[in-house]
Design goal:
This protein is α/β, with parallel strands linked by helices. Helices cover about 35% and strands about 10% of the residues. The protein has helices spanning about 1-10, 60-65, 90-100, 125-145, and strands at about 20-25, 30, 50, 75, 105-110.
C-alpha cells in the first residue's frame, strides 16, 4: 500500500506533473508549470473569498485566520452563522467595521449566494422575502464601508 501511495506522490521520470502541483521539497514553493519561478506566500494582490469558511467560522474569525496566510482583502460570503444581515445588529456591525479598519484590512465585496432566494418567484411572498434579504445585504455593505 505504501508503495502505491508513493507512486501517486511522485510521477515516473519523463511524466509531467499536472499544472498546479506544488513542490515543497526543494526550497521555495514552486509549481510544475513554472519550476524556475519561486512563488510568493504574500497573497496581498488578491482578495480571498470566504466561501470555504461559511460552515466553520464567523466572518471575523475567518478573516483572522486568513490574515495569518497573507490575505488582507476579502470577499465575505453572506451565509447564516458566517455573516448574515439579520444576525448582526448595529453594535455588531460597528465592531466588525472597527476590526477591519483597525487591522488594515479591506472588504471588497459582500457575496450573496443564491441560497433560498428567487427574485422571479411565482409567489409574491418569495419575491418580497428575496428583496428584503438583498436589501439587508446592501445595508450591511453600507454599515461595513464595503464599496
Amino acid at each position: 500500500m505504501r508503495a502505491a501511495i508513493s507512486r501517486l506522490r511522485k510521477p515516473p521520470l519523463g511524466v509531467a506533473r499536472p499544472c498546479g502541483f506544488f513542490d515543497r521539497t526543494k526550497g521555495p514553493l514552486r509549481t510544475s508549470c513554472f519550476p524556475d519561478i519561486a512563488m510568493s506566500r504574500d497573497a496581498s494582490p488578491f482578495a480571498v473569498n470566504t466561501y470555504s469558511y461559511t460552515q466553520s467560522h464567523g466572518a471575523r474569525d475567518c478573516m483572522l485566520a486568513l490574515v495569518g496566510r497573507g490575505y488582507s482583502e476579502f470577499e465575505l460570503m453572506m451565509y447564516p452563522k458566517h455573516l448574515w444581515p439579520p444576525e448582526i445588529d448595529q453594535p455588531g456591525r460597528r465592531q466588525l467595521r472597527k476590526f477591519v479598519e483597525s487591522n488594515g484590512l479591506r472588504v471588497v465585496t459582500l457575496n450573496m449566494p443564491n441560497i433560498d432566494l428567487n427574485v422571479a418567484g411565482a409567489a409574491a411572498e418569495m419575491r418580497a422575502y428575496t428583496v428584503a434579504n438583498l436589501r439587508g445585504v446592501v445595508e450591511l455593505a453600507g454599515d461595513l464601508g464595503v464599496p
